[in-house]
# Entry
Amino acid sequence: MFLRFVTKSIHAYLDYPVALGLIAMPFLFGLGAENALAFWLSVATGVAAFALTVLTDHHLGVIRVLPYSLHLAVDGLVGIAFVVAPIVLGFAGLDFWYYTILGLTVLAVVGLHQPEDRPAAI
# Structure
């Protein structure tokens, strides 16, 4: 049996720091030295993730107009895009590893999501 412990509440608490991290990390790590897309992809995704979180129907959403299921689907697509982007866009070095590791992490969090209709499975 697969461990699924990331509840809607846990996910909500991760959303804002991750969005802000996506905006700040390109500056902190110096991403995009060889390809500006490596810098701006993270910043733009962070801004979009912040907006998505504000609009998501969970306890930390501010406006709560988007269903949480849509939020999870978007997160899954971002994870896939982050894994594929370094290959398609030709990122190298730190840019490559930043997106690959971040994409795999996002996919893991989405994959570890616990459906709301049942308790955590161990």
Q: What stands out?
A: Residues 12 and 60 are 6 Å apart (CA to CA). The chain has a mean pLDDT of 93.
